[in-house]
Design brief:
Layout: H1 3-17, H2 21-45, H3 48-53, H4 56-73, H5 79-112, H6 118-125, H7 129-141, H8 147-158, H9 163-170, H10 174-195
Helix pairs in contact: 1-2, 2-4, 4-5, 5-6, 5-7, 5-8, 7-10, 8-10, 9-10
């Protein structure tokens, strides 16, 4: 998104604050297009177990619903705040679906682990619980980052905003955004290494 895109989003947010319901619809339409692209990438990269059981549209729809509910209660004042809210809702949906898949996988293994030794057979046909747990933990750790690190990480990783756009939206120098991205990824990497 270029600077004119940010200006347009800010205009929609300003109209939203004045009670313009059409602005909310247009804002969500813009978010939906981006969420659809990101959901496909994220589901197949970080959440393959979710991708096997859920359609792309169900992830986008659930994120859309949660974002709509959040916009009913709070009106983000800036484009940066809107992006943070959208990334947060997107991450929540994926984590909730992954948690549900983990529970379903555990129930399937328990149900198949009768006297015939079905648990070992199920291991090859159901989810890989270790991989699902690792990716779930990774996305949960994002919430533990510092405010600026989390904002940069969410916007770049979940929303695929380029670092130059993030710098513009957050009012930071591009080198600061790069530093925050590196710092966030190093922290997440260290925490995951410790968990292995």
């Amino acid at each position: 998104m270029d600077e004119s895109g940010s200006v347009e989003l800010q205009g929609l947010l300003d109209r939203l604050h004045r009670g313009d319901r059409e602005a909310r619809r247009r804002l969500l339409e813009r978010a939906c297009e981006r969420l659809r692209r990101l959901a496909g990438r994220m589901m197949h990269g970080s959440f393959p177990e979710v991708a096997r059981r859920h359609e792309l549209d169900s992830v986008v729809h659930e994120t859309w619903v949660r974002l709509l509910q959040a916009l009913e209660k709070a009106e983000p004042p800036t484009v940066a705040d809107f992006f943070r809210l959208a990334a947060h809702k997107f991450r929540q949906v994926l984590l909730d679906m992954a948690q549900s898949e983990r529970r379903r996988g555990q129930r399937e293994v328990i149900g198949l682990s009768g006297a015939d030794g079905g648990a070992s057979a199920a291991a090859g046909t159901t989810h890989d619980p270790a991989r699902l747990a690792l990716w779930t933990e990774f996305h949960e750790k994002v919430a533990g980052l510092g405010d600026q690190e989390r904002a940069v990480f969410e916007m770049h990783y979940y929303l695929e905003l380029p670092q130059a756009e993030i710098a513009r939206v957050l009012g930071l120098h591009p080198r600061k955004v790069s530093y925050l991205w590196i710092s966030a990824t190093e922290k997440l990497g260290e925490e995951l290494d410790a968990a292995l």
